[in-house]
């Protein structure tokens, strides 16, 4: 994998997936629908990472930026998928 954009996107997808996996509730309320959404998000991130590892030649600038921004959003929410779904406070 010699494409630097592919390496950036792959790292972003893997880091976001690991951050969601490492989320701890610490007394937060369990919501079944949010748990399923977190699982689906984890599957999508893992699938994207596997696809990039297999076929890295088709990665462009916009996919790398999208992956980096998505990873930034996940890290800013500290892996809490419910916080990603909440509307922003005004």
TrEMBL record:
One Pfam family cited in the UniProt record for this chain: Phage_holin_3_7
Protein's organism: Paraburkholderia aspalathi
Presence of the UniProt keyword Transmembrane helix in the record: yes
UniProt-recorded name of the protein: 3TM holin, Phage_holin_3
Entry's transmembrane regions: 6-22, 34-54, 60-77
InterPro entries assigned to the protein according to its UniProt record, in alphabetical order: Phage_holin_3_7 (IPR008473)
Keywords in alphabetical order: Membrane, Transmembrane, Transmembrane helix
Lineage: Bacteria, Pseudomonadati, Pseudomonadota, Betaproteobacteria, Burkholderiales
Transmembrane is among the record's keywords: yes
């Amino acid at each position: 994998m010699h494409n630097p954009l592919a390496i950036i996107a792959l790292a972003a997808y893997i880091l976001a997936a690991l951050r969601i996996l490492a989320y701890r509730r610490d007394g937060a309320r369990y919501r079944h629908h949010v748990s399923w959404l977190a699982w689906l998000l984890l599957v999508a991130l893992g699938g994207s990472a596997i696809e990039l590892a297999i076929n890295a030649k088709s990665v462009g600038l916009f996919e790398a930026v999208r992956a980096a921004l998505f990873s930034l959003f996940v890290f800013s929410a500290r892996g809490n998928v419910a916080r990603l779904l909440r509307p922003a406070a005004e």
